[in-house]
Amino acid sequence: MPTKICSSCQTDTETVVDHKAGHELCSRCGLVLEINLLDEIPEGQNSPGSVENPVCETENSSKSSSSFNPSDQKTVKNSSKKGFDQITVMGDALGLTAEIKDRACEIYSQVDIMKTCRGRSINSIAAACLFIACKEIGSSRTLNEISAVADGVSKKNINRTSEAIKKQLEVESWVLHPRELIRRFCSKLGLENRAIKAVQEAAERAQNIDIRRSPKSVLAAIIYMVIQLCQRDPVPVRDIAMVLEVTEVTIKKSFKDISAYASRVIPEWYAGEEDVNKIPYP
């Protein structure tokens, strides 16, 4: 069996080829070591086979999750192919880069071989892997957007599956940086460039203040404040909550926490302290 240095295991390890997908995998941890090997596979070795069970219900599930038995290769090959296909379909629908889709496939391969998500469907695992890859690489895709292309998989299901994968595979966790989503959120709410710039600067200033709310909650409160200072009809709080995927109660609580620092957060060039202090409670 061929060997290669695995960047994850940091050792010379035996490799297994997924003939259908054309991927070469580390036999220890499941990391995709090389992609698109189809041209190198001898003719007749890439027959599809047929396994209809979800990835988490493959045979020999009682074996250690940290080891891979080459005899299971056919089962892994078929379930991996289905997952890779689903990731490609969802990624294309969202207009994601090849880098993000490839990373999602790497995570899926580890999940598939190590049987990390027993009892979950291929669609939910593929969606969760894509969600993790987006956050790792810095694509500002929300659970709503991924759920919309995940063939009926709910946001709650995707989130729970991604948390299980992160815990078992120890993939990097992330913090949502509001700036990634500001322009898209503000555009959906009809804000002009000057107001968007004020939101971006306010979000950056807020990072230096000890506000114990999630970044998205703080951003929602900032957008609310900036909208109140616009020379235009205010956008209803429920619309802000819908666009940012938070609750109206969350916006009200976040505003209460950040309002004491409003004059430090809202840029001086956008509004004076007197106007900032007059912003009404949501």
UniProtKB/TrEMBL annotation:
Q: In what residue span(s) does the TFIIB-type domain sit?
A: 2-34
Q: Which InterPro entries match?
A: Cyclin-like_dom (IPR013763), Cyclin-like_sf (IPR036915), TFIIB (IPR000812), TFIIB_CS (IPR023486), TFIIB_cyclin (IPR013150), Znf_TFIIB (IPR013137)
Report biased composition (Polar residues) as residue ranges: 68-78
Show the segment(s) annotated as Disordered: 43-80
* Keywords noted in UniProt: Metal-binding, Repeat, Transcription, Transcription regulation, Zinc, Zinc-finger
Question: Which SUPFAM superfamilies does its entry note?
Answer: Cyclin-like, Zinc beta-ribbon
Which family, according to the similarity comment? Belongs to the TFIIB family.
- Entry protein name: TFIIB-type domain-containing protein
